[in-house]
């Protein structure tokens, strides 16, 4: 019998119940026991859904009130000192409010303290809380939640498999305490002591299988980490449960032998991202081990071609027999919950999709097809999948010859500005007439309650198109007035009309679709609803020109056009999997190129193309970086190169690790780049200096995430530091990022100080 299971299920609920409950609890509108009850109810439902869909095992341990990596830290008793949790750790039960304080800095009870760092989980948009470690870290079993959850599931009569972040991946995701240096592997033994204890207890509860998530096996691992894998699992081998080591998010590559050789009972692999490794694994799998083949895409929302996957895995099933397990490639945490809720989505498009709930059915059916126990229902699902995939392959809504033709007609010259930067800079200086240390902002101004209310009413049909436009224009006019009064040199229109920087453009481009309930957890109670990029992309009409032209008409100062770049448009969406991402990206780039030209035509002299997601698109393996950066840079250049020398192209990126990708950043050849630097004390400009980065840079002089008013002298000092690294005439003065989350009462004085700082600098230089 081919076992079916999943690596994990979304915990937010099909109506974001978890978000609502945790936020209500934080605000004091819900009691602790009510919150715990919501958690219990969600788990119960999710297990029921798994069981009803026919999975052979239900997965316990994927629930978290905030984050599963944080849960593992709690299990290990890893709570930084500032949260004063010694007693709780000693008692073996860390309080839920301590968990929330670690995640958010505050909770209904307990002293506020600086929250733990949060960062993206591998190459996903999910954020985990970074385990904060130090050299004399103690480890001690300090949470019983997992065991209670196992009890709950068993009480409901489920066949339970437990999932936990594996010890090496947990350590890998951890970081030494600020200012310390630490070899994380020196902590491994202490970590393993607790894992051994956890596994013992699970065994005592009657758990047979424990899945240890080790996505770090899909990374380039240093030699000592590889060795540590052997050591760790050798140690855990002695425990009385069966271990399934789960690798996902990519190929095992050079870790394949290592993974195969671990002394465990089974291995789960990502057969969506690395289909080519399956046969190799089967050839070498020891006869007592199971292989869990992650054949259903856990990272994307497309319906599986069941016949194709079945055919591909038939020989594997024959060779492995009962030792073949079938699962999605990774936890379904990364996809929306239930497609059935999308009653407004067009039927044909809907037939091409599968969300978490639907992926359970696919998993079960595939396992039964391969295990020779297919039911009539499975046969009809197989049929339906084949029909849907056939329509997807040929639908004129996806495949639009005119888009392909335009792409085919492009030449290298299309991704190349007419002149090199020095010539352009000269031409732009003439046209723009900006002072030294020109001041600007990153694009958005506060999204006030009035703006949000207007958008809501407009969407609901309560506010006419004309009235909505009039109100947005009034917002723009006000933003222009404020900027002129402040004395900023290059203005923006403020993005009042935009809900979200990707959604706004996706809604206007052909090839994108939007769901109503397609929420995916981003971090804690925060969920995002990524658009679906399903078909060939084109731009039926100009998207931003009216707004920008209107804004420009109100002022003599240059008004920056504002667009979201092609890579970010891809990175923050569910992207079609039937053609290379590089091709899809070029299509988006081409649509943006038309917009850039139209803006230029309309008299806009500077256009910013934001690419905040460029870096996060980097593949997990270094060997794949160059390939990605090539097409990503090319796409940006395609979108930005259609203008004359005098039109100034800006880009913006809000992160601070440029060292690795500085040549790609330079290859973008944007005339001006604005970046986040204020928190790194301008040190990250070293990368630009060392590289001899040739174009202009606006290193953010203040952190927009902080409500504190930035000090003039402090900003001057930061810019002086910048001037030690970058020549004066190439420096701009601007905040770190957009201001949409701030209030005008904060923005006005902050920008006034920033403008003042620029004046001080001009007097000095
Ligand atoms: N132009 C966008 C803004 O100002 C940029 C946002 C971003 O970098 N994420 O809001
Ligand atoms: Zn930003």
UniProtKB/TrEMBL annotation:
Positions of 5-methyltetrahydropteroyltri-L-glutamate binding: 19, 120, 125, 526-527, 572, 616
Function description: Catalyzes the transfer of a methyl group from 5-methyltetrahydrofolate to homocysteine resulting in methionine formation.
Top EC class, one word: transferase
Residues annotated to bind L-homocysteine: 442-444, 495, 610
Residues where L-methionine binds: 442-444, 495, 610
Name this polypeptide is given: 5-methyltetrahydropteroyltriglutamate--homocysteine methyltransferase
Gene this chain is encoded by: metE
Requisite cofactors: Zn(2+)
Record-listed Zn(2+) binding positions: 652, 654, 676, 737
UniProt-listed InterPro entries: Cbl-indep_Met_Synth_N (IPR013215), Cobalamin-indep_Met_synthase (IPR006276), Met_Synth_C/arc (IPR002629), UROD/MetE-like_sf (IPR038071)
Metabolic or biological pathway, per its Swiss-Prot or TrEMBL entry: Amino-acid biosynthesis; L-methionine biosynthesis via de novo pathway; L-methionine from L-homocysteine (MetE route): step 1/1
NCBIfam families for this protein: met_syn_B12ind, PRK05222.1
Active-site residues annotated for this sequence: 705
All residue ranges annotated as the Cobalamin-independent methionine synthase MetE N-terminal domain in the record: 4-319
Pfam (any one): Meth_synt_1
GO molecular function, one term: zinc ion binding
Species this protein is from: Halomonas cupida
Biological processes annotated in GO: L-methionine biosynthetic process; methylation
Catalytic reaction(s) noted: 5-methyltetrahydropteroyltri-L-glutamate + L-homocysteine = tetrahydropteroyltri-L-glutamate + L-methionine
Region entry Disordered, spans: 377-397
The protein's Enzyme Commission number: 2.1.1.14
UniProt: Zn(2+) 1 binding residues: 652, 654, 676, 737
The organism's taxonomic lineage, starting at the top: Bacteria, Pseudomonadati, Pseudomonadota, Gammaproteobacteria, Oceanospirillales
UniProt record similarity statement: Belongs to the vitamin-B12 independent methionine synthase family.
Record-annotated Cobalamin-independent methionine synthase MetE C-terminal/archaeal domain positions: 437-759
Free-text cofactor note: Binds 1 zinc ion per subunit.
């Amino acid at each position: 019998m081919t076992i079916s299971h999943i690596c994990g299920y979304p915990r937010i609920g099909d109506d974001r119940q978890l978000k609502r409950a945790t936020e209500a609890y934080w605000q004091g509108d819900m009691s602790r026991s009510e919150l715990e009850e919501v958690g219990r109810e969600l788990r119960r439902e999710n297990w029921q859904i798994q069981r009803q869909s026919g999975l052979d095992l239900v997965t316990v341990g994927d629930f978290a009130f905030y984050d599963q990596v944080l849960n593992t830290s709690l299990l290990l008793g890893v709570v930084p000192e500032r949260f004063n949790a010694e007693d709780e750790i000693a008692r073996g039960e860390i309080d839920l409010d301590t968990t929330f304080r670690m995640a958010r800095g505050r909770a209904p009870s307990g002293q506020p303290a600086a929250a733990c760092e949060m960062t993206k989980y591998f190459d996903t948009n999910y954020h985990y809380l970074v385990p904060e470690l130090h050299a004399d870290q103690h480890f001690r079993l300090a949470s019983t939640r997992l065991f209670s959850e196992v009890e709950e599931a068993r009480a409901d009569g489920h066949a339970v498999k437990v999932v936990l972040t594996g010890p090496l991946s947990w350590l890998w995701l951890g970081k030494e305490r600020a200012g310390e240096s630490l070899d994380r592997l020196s902590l491994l033994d202490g970590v393993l002591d607790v894992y051994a204890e956890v596994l013992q207890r699970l065994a005592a509860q009657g758990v047979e299988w424990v899945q240890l998530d080790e996505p770090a096996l899909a990374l380039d691992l240093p030699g000592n980490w590889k060795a540590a894998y052997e050591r760790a699992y050798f140690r855990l081998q002695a425990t009385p449960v069966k271990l399934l080591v789960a690798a996902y998010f990519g190929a095992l590559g050079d870790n394949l032998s290592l993974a195969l050789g671990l002394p465990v009972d089974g291995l789960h692999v990502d057969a969506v991202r690395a289909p080519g490794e399956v046969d190799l694994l089967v050839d070498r799998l020891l006869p007592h081990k199971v292989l869990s083949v992650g054949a259903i895409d856990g990272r994307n929302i497309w319906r599986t071609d069941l016949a194709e996957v079945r055919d591909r895995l038939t020989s594997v099933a024959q060779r492995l027999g009962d030792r073949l397990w079938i699962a999605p490639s990774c936890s379904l945490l990364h996809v929306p919950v239930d497609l059935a809720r999308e009653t407004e989505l067009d039927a044909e498009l809907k037939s091409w999709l599968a969300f978490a709930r639907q992926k359970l059915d696919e998993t079960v059916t595939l396992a039964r097809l391969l295990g020779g126990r297919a039911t009539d229902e499975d046969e009809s699902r197989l049929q339906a999948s084949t029909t849907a995939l056939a329509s997807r392959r040929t639908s004129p809504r996806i495949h639009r010859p005119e888009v392909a033709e335009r792409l085919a007609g492009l030449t290298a010259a299309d991704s190349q500005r007419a002149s090199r930067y020095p010539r352009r800079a000269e031409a732009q200086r003439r046209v723009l007439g900006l002072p030294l240390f020109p001041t600007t902002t990153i694009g958005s101004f506060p999204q006030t309650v009035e703006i949000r209310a207007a958008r809501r009413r407009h969407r609901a049909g309560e506010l006419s198109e004309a009235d909505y436009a009039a109100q947005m224009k009034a917002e723009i006019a006000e933003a222009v007035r404020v900027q002129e009064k402040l004395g900023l040199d290059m203005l923006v229109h403020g993005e009042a009309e935009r809900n979200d920087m990707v959604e706004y453009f996706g809604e206007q481009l052909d090839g994108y679709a939007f769901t109503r309930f397609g929420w995916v957890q981003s971090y804690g109670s925060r969920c995002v609803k990524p658009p679906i990029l399903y078909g060939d992309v084109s731009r039926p009409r100009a998207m931003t020109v009216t707004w920008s032209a209107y804004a420009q008409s109100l002022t003599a100062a240059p008004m920056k056009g504002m667009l979201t770049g092609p890579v970010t448009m891809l990175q923050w969406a569910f992207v079609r999997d039937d053609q290379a991402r590089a091709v899809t990206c070029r299509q988006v780039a081409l649509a943006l190129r038309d917009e850039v030209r139209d803006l230029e035509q309309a008299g806009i002299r500077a256009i910013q193309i934001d690419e905040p997601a460029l870096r996060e698109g980097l593949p997990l393996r270094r060997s794949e970086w160059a390939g990605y950066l090539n097409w990503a840079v090319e796409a940006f250049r395609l979108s930005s190169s259609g203008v004359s020398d005098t039109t100034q192209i800006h880009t913006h990126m809000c992160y601070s690790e440029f060292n690795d990708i500085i040549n790609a950043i330079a290859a973008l050849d944007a005339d001006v780049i604005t970046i986040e630097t204020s928190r790194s004390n301008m040190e990250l400009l070293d990368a630009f200096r060392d590289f001899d980065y040739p174009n202009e840079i606006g290193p953010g002089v203040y952190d927009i995430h902080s409500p504190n008013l930035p000090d003039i002298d402090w900003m001057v000092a930061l810019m002086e530091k910048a001037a030690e690294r970058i020549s004066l005439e190439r420096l701009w003065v601007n905040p770190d990022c957009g201001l949409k989350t701030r209030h005008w009462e904060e923005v006005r004085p902050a920008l006034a100080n920033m403008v003042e700082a620029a004046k001080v600098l001009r007097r000095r230089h």
